[in-house]
Automatic annotation (TrEMBL):
Keywords: Membrane, Transmembrane, Transmembrane helix
Domain of life assignment: Bacteria
Lineage, opening ranks: Bacteria, Pseudomonadati, Bacteroidota, Flavobacteriia, Flavobacteriales
Any coiled-coil regions, as ranges: none
Listed transmembrane segments: 65-85, 91-111, 118-134, 146-166, 186-212, 218-240, 252-273, 285-305, 317-340, 352-373, 393-413
The name this protein goes by in its record: DUF4153 domain-containing protein
Amino acid sequence: MKAQILSGLNDPAQLEHLYRSNKSSFKREFIELYPEIKDTSLAAFWKERLSFSGEEINWGSAKEIFLVLLGIIITGLTAKLPAFFGIDEDFFYPRNSGFIVFPVLTAYFAWKNNLSKGKSIVIALAMFAGLLYINSLPDFPESDTLILACIHLLIFLWFLLSIAFVGEEEDTNVGRLSFLKFNGDLVVLSALICIAGGIVTAVTIGLFQLIGLNIEEFYFQNIVVFGLPAVPVIASFLNSTNPQLVGKVSPVIARLFSPVVLVMLVIYLGAMAFSGKDPYSDREFLLIFNILLIGVMALIFFSVAETSGKSKSKPEIYILVLLSLVTVVVNGIALSAILFRIAEWGITPNRLAVLGANVLILVNLLLVSFQLLKAASKNSQLHQVGNIIARYLPVYFVWAILVTFLFPLIFGIN
């Protein structure tokens, strides 16, 4: 839609038509595009118009509300399938947790973005194939290969969701960056909903205890289990129809936490040298080290996605440069640790999966760091950094396919 908005700057009637055909999508795309077109009088007019209408919560059309409510019911019923049909929870949830929410979100954005029938069918078939495959694997809960397949299946489903979110956007890089931004906003909004839900839960259980009724077990088994999967659906709907809700909060969080995380990482690396703990001999420490790496990398990517195409002060760019370089060091330590463990004890599915992921992350971080250095030295925008991130996302998708579908065939489930 961004390309249509740009061409519509010379045709006010076309902008009005775009706005009326899909108000929420138009508003989201226009707000992201505005820094590039703010010098035009028509863009300034639309900015004021959209800002004024944004003061109130937009609840979407009646049809959209119906679809969201239907999605909430579907996610809740899916989460309750083990209780309804006596399915072993230890078998169902590790394999199917992604299928509780991702199909509903994917269908919602496919509908909202008028995804072509061909793409919709491909996504549906890919999800169905994943569902059949993961549930056909032998039941060995302690199998490393099975655990890896279940984890990487979530990445597989997440990327399919991104295809529906990007829709028919001509510039897929812009669409993927918008998707990353959506994920950050979704986390913030979901956290707020969970906090509110937690307060309501505590108050409700407490009130019933005052009159001598203990509803805690019933409440968690029926209300929480049914309602918790609805949180990302509700958050996605609110974020899609009201991008202004957390549109200003997420960039602030990214700006606040980037320097804090940078300082924390430097201190942590220094403390690690004196603690006697290292990822070379401690498997759990290596796992935590990699989780830390993924979290910091996500913060870098989210910060870039929030500001791509916009001007950013030199201190902010330098913080991102330093954070990316320190993260490269962290990744190098993790990569050397896993290579050491492979040399000492041989290849296992876990070690190969971690090795592959670390190599992919290292390449991605080096590319991002190089572009950030160029942005800092030339005082340019982060557009090229965003493009690097967007173009690299399919690489993780391919790796997720390999681990999910090929590792069990190569290493077996035992």
